[in-house]
Write a structure and sequence with these properties.
Double Stranded RNA Binding Domain; Arc Repressor Mutant, subunit A; 8 strands; globular; disordered N terminus; disordered C terminus
Length: 310
């Protein structure tokens, strides 16, 4: 699937297990990465049974392994991948019908029936260049500066940090061209409070759904980022190995840079191999402060735990 394609998948921010240093976990990540490539190359969506036979696993075991690595079931992954291809093809094919069949769908009617879920609008409207995405936007203040929160009906689509609220709003409009912005109403007050609380205390999980927009590869990276425990870091190379793509270090760094959801998808936990801090979309000093807060909160948490009985 082309990396320029866009897939929208609502994800929960619940805790997920990391692969750690377990060799079998690294093997599972590589196996799932191969299945993802197979799904992307398939003309039609493979069934769970076909995937299981290809991997040499039982369907139930494959389902568990696949979701542990990617955060999605094989079916949800395949549908997100195909929807991403549809978005790409609608921008580059000669016609809507050409785009639909190039993306692997078997009929125009099926896509038109699903177009509200897949695209948020008709394929023709999407092809003409309007994203039409409805975003509720709020700007709050924190000790790290202004915090912009943008949410769709499916979840939080952006958490942006900066010094100038107006600059953040302009950046949001560049990142979601054609979107329809609306001021957050009273129903969003609790959501905004939760987001600001996590910015102030980044060790806390954000118990809100996310509406992440990116390629299937980016989703793999973002899921792996959410598995890094607070107060710890990985290098880009370690993160690439963790998702079963050890040679894709540059692409992993690009996926971290493309993350629009600060703190909730903790790209600040990725550093250079020597431990030095690399660039951060919202400023290296904010990255340094987030890591310092996490380290301090992790230390306090350990100190507060009762000693194990001997």
């Amino acid at each position: 699937m082309p990396d320029t394609a866009t897939a929208t998948t609502a994800l929960s921010t619940g805790p997920a297990r990391g692969t750690g240093s377990d060799p079998s976990a690294a093997q599972r990540a590589q196996q799932v990465a191969e299945l993802c490539r197979w799904i992307a190359a398939a003309e039609t969506e493979p069934s769970l049974g076909e995937l299981a036979r290809h991997a040499g696993l039982s369907p139930g075991h494959l389902q568990r392994v696949f979701k542990a690595v990617t955060g999605l079931s094989p079916k949800a992954w395949a549908r997100a991948d195909r929807a991403a291809r549809l978005r790409h093809e609608l921008r580059h094919s000669r016609s809507v019908s050409d785009a639909i069949y190039a993306a692997g769908y078997q009929s125009d009617g099926h896509v038109y029936d699903l177009s509200a879920r897949l695209l948020g609008m008709s394929p023709g409207t999407y092809r003409r260049g309007s994203t039409g995405l409805a975003l509720h936007v709020a700007i709050a203040h924190s000790s790290l500066g202004a915090v912009l929160i943008a949410a769709t009906p499916r979840g939080v689509a952006a958490i942006m940090l900066g010094d100038d609220p107006e600059a953040l709003l302009q950046a949001l409009q560049r990142q979601f061209p054609g979107s329809q912005l609306a001021a957050a109403n009273a129903d969003y007050e609790a959501l905004v409070a939760q987001v600001v609380a996590v910015v102030e205390h980044p060790s806390q999980p954000l118990d809100l759904p996310l509406d992440l927009q990116g390629t299937a590869f980016q989703h793999r990276v973002w899921h792996a980022l959410r598995q890094i425990p607070p107060g710890t870091t990985l290098s880009y190379a370690e993160l690439a190995a963790r998702i079963g793509a050890p040679k894709a270090v540059r692409a992993v760094a690009g996926a971290c840079a493309a993350n629009r959801v600060a703190v909730a998808v903790p790209c600040h936990r990725v550093v250079h191999r020597d431990g030095s801090l690399s660039g951060y979309r919202w400023g290296v000093e904010r990255k340094r402060e987030l890591l310092a807060r996490e380290t301090g909160e992790a230390s306090l948490g350990r100190a507060a735990m009762p000693a194990e009985p001997t």
